[in-house]
Amino acid sequence: MSNLTVYLITLIVYSALSVFFLRAQLAGNAEKLNRGLLGNAVLLPLALHGYLLYDNLWSAGALNLGLMHALSLILWLTILVYWLAHFFYPLASLKTLVLPLAGVGAMLPFIFPGARVMPQAGSWAFDAHVLAAMLAYSLFTIAALHAGLMSLVENSLHRARLPALLRDLPPLLTMEILLFRIIAAGFVLLTLTLISGGVFSEQIFGRAWQFNHKVLFGFISWAVFGVLLAGHHFYGWRGRTAVSWTMSGFALLVLAYIGSKFVLEVILHR
Predict the structure, then answer these.
(1) Which of helix, strand or coil describes residue 66?
(2) From residue 206, how far is each of 53, 126, 127, 199 by CA, in Å?
(3) CB atoms within 10 A of CB 219
(4) How many CA atoms lie within 13 Å of 216's alpha carbon, on the beta-carbon side?
(5) Is the pLDDT score of 61 beyond 80?
(6) I need a labelling partner for 42 at 20 to 30 A (CA). Which of 17, 159, 254, 264 fits?
(7) Which residues sit opposite 118 in a β-bridge?
(8) Distance in angstroms (rounded) separating the CA atoms of residues 198 and 202
(9) Mean residue pLDDT across the chain
(10) Distance CA 270, CA 268 (A)
């Protein structure tokens, strides 16, 4: 089977599951189906996507982590984290949002091929840094989508009109509790990302951090999420305040990594 065939099958299955869960969401039984056998159907495109990622990430004989490969990896990890979490939390609503993104993410390395080899791969500090960073981005992607859903629900409740797509969601308080758990886990991983990045930088460049825009935005994002968690714990921040801080922190995180790679690889061709 050629890689093109695998790409197409992955896209088709992701798309089919997206449509299926969208219809289930509109019918109000998405969470029931997600708890059953059909909730595990995502494992098929997840496995195919993982195979393609492995083939692309190591095609150059070393870690190839260009922008499109990184985006694809982040979305794959987002689906993986989602699948693991759906055993414990009501997350069917996110499946409708995440599956189409994952389908696009799976195709990115095929549509935009290119190599950006990381010769540092193999260093424990670098490997730990990449793993923590990708997991942190995945969790904060879920948090941003979750916060967006909370905002839509809250606005709809104020207008006393809840669209059919949002009627199968758990109560706002449940969604909010889950949001802060996701952010807390992401914050721990982002902290590990910054620490391991400092260790790796010291091994390679002789100093803990090179304060470029990527590091700067990374630390600002870390501070935003830290303040949000502290505000929630000590002052009871919730609702729109929590959504605003979550979206702001996520935007800064996107600028820190995705934004910098986009400028370097797409605009400057470095």
Answers:
(1) coil
(2) 32, 15, 18, 10
(3) 16
(4) 5
(5) no
(6) 254
(7) 63
(8) 6
(9) 81
(10) 6
CB 118 within 8 A of CB 168: no
State how far the Cα of 69 lies from the Cα of 75, in Å rounded to an integer.
Answer: 10
Give the single-character DSSP code of 64.
Answer: E
The DSSP code for 165 is G
- Sorted by sequence, the CB contacts under 8 Å of residue 65 that are 6+ apart come out as 57, 73, 116, 118, 130
**Residue 264 backbone zone (phi > 0: left; psi -120 to 50: alpha; other: beta):** alpha
Between 97 and 225, the higher pLDDT residue: 225
DSSP bridge pairs for 121: 123
Residue 233 token pair: 């714990």
Q: What b/e string do you get for 46-59 counting C-beta neighbours within 10 Å, with b at 16 or more?
A: bebbbebbeebbee
How far is Cα 73 from Cα 97, in angstroms, rounded to an integer? 17
What is the sign, positive or negative, of the torsion defined by CA atoms of 47, 72, 38, 11?
negative
- Vertex 183 angle, CA 178 and 187, to 5°: 150
Domain locations in the chain? 1-119, 120-270
Closest CA to 64 of 112, 103, 99: 112
Note the pTM of the prediction, 2 decimals: 0.83
3-state secondary structure of 121: strand
**pLDDT band of 245, cuts 50, 70, 90:** very high
One-letter amino acid at 239 equals G
pLDDT above 50 (res 268) = no
Q: Annotate 96-120 with DSSP letters as a single string.
A: HHHHHHHHHHHHHHHHS----EETT
